[in-house]
Amino acid sequence: MAELVFTESYFETIAQIESPKLQDRLLALLELLGEVPTFGSRKVRGWLRERFGDTCMTADLSPFLLVFEYIEEDDTVFVYGVVHQREIR
Known about the structure:
CATH superfamily: RelE-like
Distance between the termini: 33 Å
Number of domains: 1
CATH topology: YaeB-like fold
Number of helices: 3
Structural class: alpha+beta
Strand content: 25-35%
Radius of gyration: 12 Å
Order of helices and strands: EHHHEEE
CATH class: Alpha Beta
Helix content: 25-40%
Strand order of the largest sheet: 1-4-3-2
Shape: globular
CATH architecture: 2-Layer Sandwich
């Protein structure tokens, strides 16, 4: 199981998620991410790449995207946070 490292931006951005149902979905998604850290999409728009780096990935958490990066050689996932899909340019 990959180690999950939660960044400061993760804790800042999850405050946007007020729905208990969506919070439960986030927890399930994080659990899956620890078990299968490569499941996300590598097709990331330019703005997100500029903000989080060229190797960031996303996973759907509608209406948000969970942004993270998997470092295979360390088997570590850096969880950067959530971005509302309306914010993505």
